[in-house]
């Protein structure tokens, strides 16, 4: 999304890092750039408001559930790998060593023919 107006910080950059802004996980200098962008760009401000409302709703409805420690560790480890450029975000979060791998027989299905 872009409003079509030139900004010091591009709309795509703001939207790509919106959750870092919402979660206060970015440096103050970057936060200031985003705040300036929101003052200038109503489409991004609207998207920010929508995402902020969704986060509040999720927190209110689900914020009391405890996250299992091992799940939190896996997710945080995955985030660090992605930030370091060592992993692709689209890959599954599940640790392959923790779950049994599908055997070739399982991948063939009922026909006995390979799916690959």
TrEMBL record:
<dbReference type="InterPro" id="IPR027383">
    <property type="entry name" value="Znf_put"/>
</dbReference>
<feature type="domain" description="Putative zinc-finger">
    <location>
        <begin position="11"/>
        <end position="44"/>
    </location>
</feature>
<protein>
    <submittedName>
        <fullName>Mycothiol system anti-sigma-R factor</fullName>
    </submittedName>
</protein>
<dbReference type="InterPro" id="IPR024020">
    <property type="entry name" value="Anit_sigma_mycothiol_RsrA"/>
</dbReference>
<dbReference type="Pfam" id="PF13490">
    <property type="entry name" value="zf-HC2"/>
</dbReference>
<feature type="region of interest" description="Disordered">
    <location>
        <begin position="88"/>
        <end position="116"/>
    </location>
</feature>
<feature type="compositionally biased region" description="Low complexity">
    <location>
        <begin position="91"/>
        <end position="108"/>
    </location>
</feature>
């Amino acid at each position: 999304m872009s409003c079509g107006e030139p900004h010091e910080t591009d709309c795509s950059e703001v939207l790509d890092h919106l959750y870092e802004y919402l979660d206060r996980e970015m440096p103050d200098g970057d936060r200031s750039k985003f705040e300036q962008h929101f003052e200038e760009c109503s489409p991004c401000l609207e998207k920010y408001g929508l995402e902020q409302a969704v986060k509040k709703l999720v927190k209110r409805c689900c914020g009391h559930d405890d996250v299992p420690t091992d799940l939190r560790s896996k997710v945080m480890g995955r985030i660090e790998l992605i930030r370091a450029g060592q992993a692709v975000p689209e890959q599954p979060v599940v640790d392959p060593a923790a779950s049994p791998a599908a055997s070739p027989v399982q991948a063939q299905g009922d026909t006995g023919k390979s799916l690959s």
